[in-house]
Amino acid sequence: MTGFKAACIQLNVGRDLEPNIHTARDLIFEAAAQGADFIATPECTGMIEPDSDAMIAKTPFEGDHPGLPVFADAARQTGAWLLIGSLAIKRPADLPGGRIANRSYLFDPAGNVATTYDKIHMFDVEVGDGQTYKESATYEPGGKAVVAETPWGRFGLSICYDVRFAYLYRDLAKAGADVLCVPAAFTKVTGDAHWHVLQRARAIETGSFIIAPAQCGTHAEDRQTFGHSLIVDPWGTVIADGGENVGVITADIDLAKVGEARRKIPALTHDRTYDVTSTEGAEPAAPRRQAHG
User: Fold this and answer.
1) Positions in the chain whose pLDDT score sits under 50
2) Is the CB of residue 11 less than 8 Å from the CB of residue 23?
């Protein structure tokens, strides 16, 4: 099968798990009613809690997370593949760091977890919106890139800030991914400047579809997210844009377009090795970090 209908759920979540879970569930069923075969929700589908200590305290262990059985049941009832963009998950006490995981869950139509992915790159920035973001104070970064098998082809998983690290997406595409998923809670200020450009660039560089569900609107402590969930084709054309409000967008995905784009510009086969030479007194270039999967 080379064709399917994809849906992005756009959310505006608050600090409490239960209402956010049920809003997401309702929109998943709305997407299924529109014929979606693959449905994706944003990063932080469970909650956005700006206070790091409160976030860690509220986060359940995986076996106790109230969202997982709800989303498993939604996958079973709709018969869709379901990507929950991310949930905060408490890690076992015997693991170092005392931090939590920012974890994507991919459910198959039987409600089984097909795979998970923990966000690799931590959003430790000050972007000029009056907020300070330091994910590394709350989250333990993941260490594995993930490519998942679906009935239509391979999907590469990532989360939000990962999108600024082009090598990850190149690695995913070289591992066979035809579709790259980028669930996000992009800030309003960075979204205005960079969101569309980055998503289109990752599609163009790899000749892949991009499916990027997003958070939107104003959250606790006046945190603002950009919205504009996107579905982008392998030539870099935006084929669906969620705008600024909560809701669902869909697009028909024809994976034959992946092969077409990669035949036209076979950049994935044109990599070369090279040395980096710096002038005297300049900082040497850091070696490329490889994500493993």
Assistant:
1) 289-293
2) yes
* Residue 258 and residue 24 in contact, taking contact as beta carbons nearer than 8 Å: no
Calpha distance 168→96 (Å, rounded):
25
Alpha-carbon distance 24 to 255, whole Å? 27
Q: In sequence order, what E strands does the chain have? A: 3-10, 38-40, 81-90, 100-107, 113-118, 124-125, 133-134, 146-149, 154-157, 177-181, 209-212, 216-218, 224-226, 230-232, 238-241, 247-254
Q: What tens digit of pLDDT does each residue of 198-242 get?
A: 999 999 999 999 999 999 999 999 999 999 999 999 999 999 999
Q: How many CB atoms lie within 10 A of CB 190?
A: 20
What is the distance between the alpha carbons of residues 131 and 122, in angstroms, rounded to a whole number? Answer: 16
Domains annotated on the chain, with CATH: 3-269 (3.60.110.10)
Q: Which residues are part of the catalytic machinery?
A: 43, 119, 160
- C-alpha–C-alpha distance, residues 22 and 219, integer Å: 17
What is the CA 232 to chain-centroid distance, rounded?
Answer: 14
